[in-house]
Amino acid sequence: MRDDPEAVPGVPVGEMPVAWTLLIVGCAVGALLTGEFSRFTLRLAAPFLLVGGLLALAAVRAIGRGRTLVTHGPYRWIRNPYFLGVLLMLVGAIIAMRSLPALVLFIPTLRVTVARAHREEHNLALRFGEAYERYWTKVPSFLPVRPPLTSESAAAIAALGRPSHTGEAAPDPPAGPGA
Hints:
By secondary structure, this protein is mainly α. The chain has a domain at 37-161: Four Helix Bundle (Hemerythrin (Met), subunit A). Helices cover 61% and strands 0% of the residues. The longest helix is centred in the middle third of the chain and has 29 residues, at 100-128. The protein starts with 16 loop residues before the first helix and ends in an 18-residue tail after the last helix.
């Protein structure tokens, strides 16, 4: 997995939800306040807004209560569909509103989103161990450049990721949308 200066083996790291949320909101509000749309830009932006929204919604729906490692739905294709969906919606807003300030703010938003995804993956690896390591090697992070997990692979990984019933309480699920 990726090296993170704050990622200590066996120790969860914070996922920066406040900074990430502020950047997302700032980017979207910046597009609305500083931009100007036309029918042409709305048509260009519509696929980004639609696909991003549906992807984020499908990711949240697939996670459910977040107690097990999710390997179905959009998580068969990529490990971070929620983050990708939000980024696609932001790109759509920037295109629709033709906003240069929002485009400038998108660069740190992208950087923080990728860093947050890597930190979340570190925490998931701590929580689910070998199951997440196997999932991590088979499924790309943001871009679906490989075929999706087969049903058999997803079931095998999910079986490894279920909490054991040895009397130990399952750890609390990590904060954030990914699983």
